[in-house]
Structures are given as C-alpha cells and as structure tokens.
C-alpha cells in the first residue's frame, strides 16, 4: 500500500493544540500523534485488507498522489510486489490550512461558479 498525502492530520493538530492551550498538556489525547501522522492511512488500509509487503506514505505536497503512483509502479517493475494499492488522500480543510492557502493565493476566488473554479 503506497499512499500520497500532502500534509497529514492538520485538523487533528489544530484540535489538540487548542486543548493544549486551553486545558493543559494533561488533556491532550494519547492518540494525538498516531491520529496526526500521515503514514497511518497506508497502515490502516493494509490492516483492513490484510496486505503484507511494501507500505508507506509519500508526502511531497501537491505532487504526493502522483509520486505515490510512480513509486508503486517502480515497486511492481522491480518485482518487490505483485500487487500494489496506491492513490492519495487529503483533508486539509481546517482554519489554519485554509488561512495558509489563502495567504499563498492558492485557492480559487471564483466562488460563485464552483464548476469553473479549477
């Protein structure tokens, strides 16, 4: 299982940071790190389907999914695996992520016509 993820669990990071600031470190979830790290997605897929063999997440920003597919192809070509599940996942829809993308001017301003925004 080779998955691409541009940034990982930024929403989880934001929620846990708020808890840290408001309630202190003792209230941060013990699952914070496993919920935040991007490689958990490939691990969960592998566990769910019982996959053995190469497993990882590629985090190379917007190219992550394409990069994951390329690595999956190389694993197949080299004979390191007979079957690979590959693709991408992302959910960077949070106040901090949106603010960052807005400041970079990386989001469409054509909000009245979503079909023509991309």
TrEMBL record:
Keyword vocabulary terms for this entry: Transferase
Gene3D superfamilies, per database record: 3.40.47.10
UniProt-recorded Gene Ontology molecular function terms: 3-oxoacyl-[acyl-carrier-protein] synthase activity
One matching Pfam family: ketoacyl-synt
Entry keyword Transferase: yes
Domain Beta-ketoacyl synthase-like N-terminal residues, every copy: 1-114
InterPro entries: Beta-ketoacyl_synthase (IPR000794), Ketoacyl_synth_AS (IPR018201), Ketoacyl_synth_N (IPR014030), Thiolase-like (IPR016039)
Record's keyword annotation contains Transferase: yes
GO cellular component terms, semicolon-separated: cytosol
One GO BP annotation of this record: fatty acid biosynthetic process
Name under which the protein is recorded: Beta-ketoacyl synthase-like N-terminal domain-containing protein
């Amino acid at each position: 299982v080779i998955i691409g993820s541009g940034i990982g669990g930024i929403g989880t990071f934001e929620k846990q940071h708020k808890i840290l600031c408001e309630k202190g470190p003792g209230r941060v979830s013990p699952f914070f790190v496993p919920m935040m790290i991007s490689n958990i997605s490939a691990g969960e897929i592998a566990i769910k389907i019982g996959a053995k063999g190469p497993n990882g997440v590629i985090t190379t920003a917007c190219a992550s999914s394409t990069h994951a597919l390329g690595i999956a192809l190389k694993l197949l070509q080299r004979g390191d695996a007979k079957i690979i599940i590959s693709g991408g996942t992302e959910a960077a829809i949070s106040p901090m992520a949106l603010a960052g993308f807005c400041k970079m001017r990386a989001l469409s301003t054509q909000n009245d016509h979503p079909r023509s925004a991309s």
